[in-house]
Write a structure and sequence with these properties.
alpha+beta, GMP Synthetase, Chain A, domain 3, three-stranded mixed beta sheet, 3 helices, elongated
């Protein structure tokens, strides 16, 4: 369910050319963050919004788009954010 919420939030915010979400929460069972309900995810996203932005700026944009999901549903998030010109 959280994967779908992440997908919807990032799709609405960025209209990405590519969006892949990997849920590795099961590999972290028993971890402190997992006990509180937060999952571990990795996102690869390619979108025009990242063109000319630094890695830090790209991550900030993703965090902003995910908003409240970062407070409870997501404990750890790996981000690979690229512009379309970087996808090759």
């Amino acid at each position: 369910m959280t994967t779908e919420l992440i997908k919807n939030a990032l799709t609405d915010a960025f209209k990405p050319d590519l969006l892949e979400i990997i849920d590795s929460s099961a590999a972290h069972a028993g971890h402190a963050g997992a006990r509180s309900g937060g999952g571990h995810y990795h996102v690869t996203i390619i979108a025009d919004a990242f063109e000319g932005k630094s890695s830090v700026q790209r991550h900030q944009l993703v965090y902003q788009a995910l908003g409240d999901l970062m407070k409870q549903q997501i404990h750890a998030l790996g981000i690979n954010a690229l512009s379309p010109s970087e996808k090759n």
